[in-house]
Automatic annotation (TrEMBL):
Biological process per Gene Ontology, one example term: cell adhesion
SMART domains per UniProt: FAS1
Any Pfam family hit: Fasciclin
InterPro entries: Adhesion/Biosynth-related, FAS1_dom_sf, FAS1_domain
Organism of derivation: Methanolobus profundi
The protein's name in its UniProt record: Uncaracterized surface protein containing fasciclin (FAS1) repeats
Length: 135
């Protein structure tokens, strides 16, 4: 059996979330999400960033408050598997906003589809999504 690692280590090892990991490092969140929890992270895969012009991403990275607001909209306290998500209609993010949850050809979180579910971590769970969530 493979060792279950923390959220940050798992996300880095997956290799699917380089822009998200860059944001976590820029905002100095690596330690928090390596050691605290449990958290559920709806993690946009790299292709989710492709429609956004590079200069918009660069500007977002320079505005820490804005970037933190976006990141915090992807994180929920507690550990929610897809089985548990399927029984909910909304979840409150750590930013205090509500994410809409719907079961429709899989599970949707706001407008994003979960494309890889239930990535187990020692301090939570990651669900890879195909879009960036905007509060």
């Amino acid at each position: 059996m493979t060792e279950v690692k923390d959220l940050i280590t798992t996300a880095k090892e997956k290799g699917s979330f380089p822009t998200l990991m860059k944001a976590a490092e820029k905002l100095k969140l690596v330690n928090k999400y390596s050691n605290e929890g449990p958290f559920t992270i709806f993690a946009p895969v790299e292709s989710a960033f492709e429609p956004i012009p590079d200069e918009v991403i660069d500007e977002s990275f320079d505005d820490h408050g804005y970037l933190l607001g976006i990141i915090n909209y992807h994180i929920v306290e507690g550990k929610y598997t897809t089985k548990e998500l399927a029984e909910l209609t909304e979840l409150e993010t750590i930013s205090g906003n509500k994410l809409k949850i719907a079961v429709k050809n899989g599970i949707k979180v706001d407008t994003a589809n979960i494309i890889e579910a239930d990535i187990e971590c020692s301090n939570g769970i990651i669900h890879a999504i195909d879009e960036i969530l905007i509060p």
